[in-house]
Structures are given as structure tokens and as C-alpha cells.
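RECORD TYPE: inverse folding
INPUT: C-alpha cells
STRUCTURE:
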């Protein structure tokens, strides 16, 4: 399937849509003014409705026949007997809402083919991943596809995970404080929005799981990594299975699907990822910070590589003199009951976790846009203690 969109055709259509939207906006302004005038006149008519005609005296003291005879007359200045009933006010609520949306979003119609190609590849990747995980063939008919998967156990588990993730985002202090709120999302925000996603349970009916690791279930990140690189660069897809450890695959997922696929060399091995980062930095692509450099203060968007517990990687949200605050995949959950498999979660790490003495330990700053509006934040001691507590958290959780 060709997911690419012609640059010329896209921009031609986008510009035409923008012209139409501008015209509609101008027409709406004119219509709105006219409707306001009509409503004002109707209000005036309504104010007269049901009122007596106004009596005014004929000029009094008019003399008839003699100075002693006075005779006065009255006449009606207005006669108004039209009965106005019902709601005659012309409402523009619906049209106003429609055109307000056009006005607010008109700049979004200035689309570029690269934006649509990214959207297309992201959606197609999502559908392909679901298709593989839930063992339902996708033949290009999106309606038929979702009709086929909606009753599978895997889809029901997906819905359950989504509901739990939504609740977690409402309560997670690190998510609430480090998630950008000004609309200028970066890849860290993309990763933060994955909060709460986790493995499918091992052996779930309707979910593709090759059983390579009998103590693990499949993950969407492992499945995505294989599908994406089988279609783009097969050399990166080898050695990956859908139930493999996915901390690294999820970092690649977040960068690629937020439009930053060229920022790093894809990796599934923490050791390989760190070595790739060092090599890339030596060639002027991003910046490497060795864990030996104790003066370096980790910053939002840094990718960390730790070998304190066999190898683990994730993304830095912020740091202070004692801790780094992170978003990681294939790690422990805040919840003890029922989540014995890897999840996407925010963590608090003591700096010694990164500074483990391995020559490949450190931080890599990719050459991407980073929104630094929510970086200097204070985290409560309750959150720090909870997310450091060994009873609640493992170093990483396969």
C-alpha cells in the first residue's frame, strides 16, 4: 500500500480549502450582522405587542361657536393589532459554532504533505500492529477491520488498558507536571501519553504471542518494531519478537511516531543503543553525556542508558541534584495487584542508577525540538518516596 501523498496535490487542495474557509468566514460575518439587525427589529415589535394604542388629545381648548364652549377630542397615534407569538428570535448558535471552528482552525488547513504522510504512516502502523497482535487480517477496509476485532479478547483487553491508563493520567503527579499544556507537544509528550500501556497477559486468546518468553505477554511496541522495520529496514527488525523486552523499542516508537524518526538509530538492545548514540554524537548528530560527567544535569528529552540491572533505557522528564524523573516502558507499575508484566510508567531514579560505572552508561540528547515550559517543577516527597520504594518498584520489569 502506498501511504505517500503528492506534495503538489496536497498543497493545491489545502490552499483551495483555505480559500473556501476564508470566504465562508467573511460570509458568516455579513450574515451574522444581518441577523442581529432582524433580531433587534423583532424585539421592538415584541415590545409593542399587546399594548393599548396610545391616546393623545386633540389640541384642547379649541373654540367652537363661542368663547364659552370648550370641546376636546382624542385620537389614536398608533394602531397596533398584530399578535407576535412564539420564539421569533433568529438563533445563530449552530452556524456560529460551525464558523467559529473554521475561524479557529483555518491555519490547520495549510497542510503539508509531510504532515499527512506522518499521519498516514502512524495510523497504518497502528492498524498493522493491531492486526498482527489480534490476529485479524486487514484488507484495507477500515470498517470491516474494526468490526472484526471489536469482539476479540485482545480488543476488550485493549479497552480495559485504555480505561486504566486514563485514570492513571488523572492521578500521576509526574504526568500532570511534566506534560506540556501549551499545545507545543514534543516527543516527550508523545511518550507521556503512552502512560499506562502494558503487556497483554501471556496466553490471552486472540492475541498473537509466539511464546519465546513464557513468563511474558506480547506488547504493541515489540509488534510495532517488527512490522515497521520489516517494511522499512529489515536489518533493524531481526532479533525482535513481540514478547521481548520493549523498553528500547518504545523509545524508538515515541521518536518515530512523533515525527523524529531520524533522531536516533533504532535499537532494541540497551548496549547497542548506547553505542549507537556515542557513534552518532561523534558524527555531530546529537550530544552524548557520559555518566562519568557528574557535572552534567540531565534535561528533558535526554535518553538514558543504565546498566545497573542488566540494561534499561528511557527518557528524562527533568532532574534535580538527587534524582532524575523519567518516563519508561517495560518497567514496574505503581499498582501491586495484577500487574506483574511490563508497563509504561513514570519513575523516580536516584542518579546512581545511571552512574553505574559501565563505560556505556550515560545520557544522549537527540537533535529534536524540546518544549522546556514544564521543566523546573517541584515533585512532592510522597511521589518521590512511592516511586523509589523497592516494595512498589523494581529497577525494570520484563
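DESIGNED SEQUENCE:
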Amino acid at each position: 500500500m502506498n501511504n505517500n501523498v503528492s506534495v503538489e496535490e496536497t498543497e493545491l487542495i489545502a490552499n483551495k480549502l483555505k480559500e473556501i474557509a476564508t470566504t465562508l468566514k467573511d460570509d458568516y460575518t455579513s450574515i451574522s450582522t444581518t441577523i442581529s439587525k432582524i433580531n433587534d427589529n423583532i424585539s421592538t415589535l415584541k415590545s409593542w405587542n399587546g399594548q393599548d394604542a396610545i391616546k393623545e388629545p386633540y389640541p384642547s381648548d379649541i373654540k367652537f361657536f363661542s368663547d364659552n364652549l370648550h370641546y376636546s377630542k382624542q385620537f389614536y397615534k398608533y394602531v397596533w393589532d398584530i399578535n407576535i407569538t412564539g420564539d421569533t428570535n433568529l438563533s445563530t448558535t449552530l452556524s456560529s459554532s460551525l464558523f467559529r471552528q473554521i475561524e479557529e482552525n483555518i491555519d490547520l488547513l495549510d497542510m503539508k504533505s509531510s504532515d499527512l504522510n506522518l499521519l498516514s504512516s502512524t495510523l497504518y502502523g497502528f492498524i498493522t500492529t493491531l492486526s498482527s497482535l489480534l490476529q485479524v487480517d486487514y484488507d484495507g477496509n477500515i470498517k470491516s477491520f474494526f468490526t472484526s476485532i471489536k469482539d476479540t479478547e485482545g480488543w476488550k483487553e485493549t479497552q480495559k488498558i485504555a480505561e486504566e491508563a486514563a485514570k492513571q493520567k488523572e492521578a500521576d503527579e509526574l504526568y500532570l507536571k511534566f506534560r506540556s499544556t501549551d499545545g507545543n507537544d514534543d516527543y516527550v509528550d508523545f511518550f507521556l501519553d503512552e502512560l499506562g500501556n502494558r503487556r497483554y497477559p501471556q496466553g490471552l486468546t486472540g492475541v498473537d504471542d509466539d511464546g519465546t518468553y513464557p513468563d511474558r505477554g506480547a506488547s504493541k511496541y515489540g509488534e510495532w518494531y517488527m512490522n515497521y522495520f520489516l517494511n522499512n529496514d529489515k536489518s533493524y527488525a531481526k532479533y525482535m519478537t513481540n514478547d521481548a523486552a520493549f523498553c528500547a523499542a518504545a523509545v524508538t516508537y515515541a521518536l518515530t511516531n512523533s515525527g523524529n524518526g531520524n533522531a536516533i538509530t533504532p535499537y532494541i538492545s540497551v548496549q547497542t543503543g548506547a553505542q549507537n548514540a556515542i557513534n552518532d554524537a561523534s558524527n555531530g548528530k546529537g550530544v552524548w553525556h557520559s555518566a562519568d560527567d557528574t557535572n552534567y544535569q540531565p534535561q528533558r528529552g535526554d535518553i538514558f542508558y543504565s546498566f545497573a540491572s542488566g540494561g534499561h533505557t528511557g527518557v528524562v522528564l527533568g532532574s534535580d541534584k538527587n534524582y532524575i524523573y523519567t518516563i519508561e516502558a517495560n518497567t514496574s507499575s505503581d499498582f501491586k495487584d495484577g500487574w506483574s508484566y511490563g508497563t509504561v510508567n513514570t519513575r523516580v531514579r536516584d542518579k546512581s542508577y545511571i552512574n553505574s560505572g559501565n563505560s556505556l552508561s550515560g545520557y544522549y540528547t537527540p537533535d529534536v525540538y524540546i518544549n522546556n515550559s514544564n521543566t523546573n517543577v517541584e515533585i512532592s516527597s510522597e511521589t518521590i518516596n512511592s516511586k523509589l520504594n523497592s516494595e512498589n518498584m523494581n529497577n525494570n520489569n520484563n
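NOTES: The CA atoms of residues 337 and 392 lie 11 Å apart.
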